Amino acid sequence: MDRPTPLVPLRYVDIGGRGPEDVVADSRGRVITGVEDGRILRIDGLADSAKARVEVLAETGGRPLGLELLPDGALLVCDAELGLLRVDLSDGVVRILADSVLGEPLRFCSNVVALSDGSVCFTVSSRRYALDQWIGDLVEHTGTGRLLRLAPGSETPEVLLEGLQFANGLALSADESFLVVAETGACRLTRYRLTGAKAGRAEPFVENLPGMPDNLWRGGPDGPIWVSLAGPRIPPLALLHRANPAVRSTAARIAVRAPFRPTGTIGALAVDDTGATVHHLARRRSGFRMVTSVCQAAGQLVLGSLWERGIAVCEPPVPK
């Protein structure tokens, strides 16, 4: 992969809530995110952090993670505690679309996309670990992540793909012929075919990423898929993944009890529908840590984080 260009921070915007895990942009350049206490927030005025306005749109009562704006102005929410939600942003009404799959409570939903046929696809990171123990799944390498689909009018999701290593971000190709799934635990992007002769099959899309991919975001079919890199690759972790299950399980029990502090290395990629890298941005010794999402809003690059109490606004990359 090409040498990265610098990820240049411009300003930090305190949003009054911890852990804006996913950030998405609306048509007016405002950023929507969800925070640890269950609130869905909208941030306007990114050009001046002192004048930025933060508005509470809704409260899920759980822990919102991945978001997807719908054409009708509503918001799809992957809630780690409640399942897949739909939020009416005009009045804040929250409706549960699905809270179980195959008789199992739907927990740790991560990212979601809506298709033009009305169906919704979304990921589940782990069936073994909850959000507050996410590091345990990465250490144990459980491979219990899933890709699910909810058909229009249905309340029961179907399993499209399982055995994923911490399934996370999700994006749709420009022609809706395939989905791209981020596997955080494997440092790769996987393609799942929706149409054509290979429909229903999964294959590598981008492997050996320079860090651990988290949420994916696409502003429109003409734009690239943005990939947030929550942390750098960790060689000792890759070695541990080759150990037997008992060793990994023991290591995971230790990891979930140990203090965690993210590194100062952050990054973001943009890839096209062939898997080619359009942009690779990185920064070492960053004060803003654990970048779990990235989007473009108001002509700038906006970063979200499971760790921070705000969002970072960065200089956009130079078009190639």
Instruction: Determine the CATH topology.
Output: Neuraminidase
For the record, the CATH architecture stands as 6 Propeller
How many individual β-strands?
27
Number of domains: 1
Give the biggest beta sheet: 5 strands, mixed
Order of helices and strands: EEEEEEEEEEEEEEHEEEEEEEEHHEEEEE
Q: CATH H-level name... which superfamily?
A: TolB, C-terminal domain
Distance between the termini: 16 Å
Order the strands across the largest sheet as they lie in space: 1-24-23-22-21
Radius of gyration: 18 Å
Helix content: under 10%
What structural class is derived from the secondary structure elements?
Answer: mainly beta
Regions with pLDDT < 50 over 5+ consecutive residues? none
InterPro entries: 6-blade_b-propeller_TolB-like, Strictosidine_synth_cons-reg
Domain Strictosidine synthase conserved region: 116-194
Protein name: Sugar lactone lactonase YvrE
Keywords: Glycoprotein, Phosphoprotein
Describe the protein's architecture and organization.
With 320 residues, the protein is mainly beta. The chain has one domain (5-314): Neuraminidase (6 Propeller), CATH 2.120.10.30. 8% of the residues lie in helices and 46% in strands. The chain is built from 3 helices and 27 strands. The protein has a 5-stranded mixed sheet with strand order 1-24-23-22-21, with no helix packed on it. It has a 4-stranded antiparallel sheet with strand order 2-27-26-25, with no helix packed on it. A hairpin with a 5-residue loop joins strand 3 and strand 4.
